[in-house]
Amino acid sequence: MRALLRDVLEEWESGRPVALGTVIATWRSAPQPVGASMIVDSDGAVVGSVSGGCVEGAVYEIAQKAIADGQPALEHYGVSDDDAFAVGLMCGGMLDVFIERIDPASYPEFGTIVADVEAGRPVAVATLVEHPDRSRVGRRMIVRSHERADPDGAVGVEGSLGSDRMDAAVETDARGALSTGVSTTLTYGPEGERLESGARVFVAAFAPRPRMIIFGAVDFALSLSRVGAFLGFHVTVCDAREVFATPSRFPDADEVVVDWPHRYLAQELEDRRIDDRSVLVVLTHDAKFDVPVLEIALRAPQIRYVGAMGSRRTHDDRMERLRDAGLTDEELSRLSSPLGLDLGARTPEETAVSIAAEIIALSSGGSGARLGSQTGPIHHRDTEADPS
Question: Which end of the chain is more exposed for a tag (fewer CB within 10 A), N or C?
């Protein structure tokens, strides 16, 4: 959804309505994750995808109707449906798609939400997508953890889902989604009771991009910064050597910092700019750089991934130095070294793919094994219970 906000904003600012279709729930091997979106504008143009091509045609028809009458719709697609072949979802999965009209009259807060997202300010949009009272479907509540910059900007919560009890429950849960940056669909009773049926609310959580911090302005860092940016990370390259740490050498990095790695990391941790989605990669191959920064990183449990490049001989020497520095076996077990998966990588580009593959596997619970040699579900993301 994040990638389409600018497209929607351009139409919104011109006063032209669009229909936004968003995947709010998936089961089994659905082709797109929760949050995947497509838009249909008033001229019939389409941007984005909710299923990789499987059900776009059906969603397109409903989107055109939503533009015409302004009525939101929640649609379920999957192989258990009688019309599964007609919509083409033959991958074995199921998904729910919520389609709504967006224009300045029905969604006056949209411009400030986009401004928050583009400025990196956390904001969540909770939309009532299913309720016994159809008149309440489509209501929104915006939850922020910051004060907007404009003088009359709201702090905390804007809008209502129809009752104080539901608003209170959803606000609490939306703040939880914001803390992880993961969009989700929540189920309540009709008035926000903690029940498993009655109403559903989709929470689109827009949190700043997760961070990838690369220590060492070397040739491998160039390729890894490119792959990290492609995967959606906010990429920082840090090196104490000013002649190597230049923006022109790392055009895909969001920032290039000239500083000693351990000093930079300590300050970022102190300023709370690193969270449990952050990954850290040490490429320096030099004990005077990598040992001090790894001492700090391995003692910071909130860092999701800590990897260090080097040969097995370099790894053994590094581990000995870290033990001498007082790190425990538990702390050392967090270090991925030599880093990456065994892909037979040789070039910097192949090595970057190997490192990125290990980060993805460890973050999502994957094994790194060939899918063709495995059985069971392909996807490792969280799934809801099968509704069929």
Answer: C
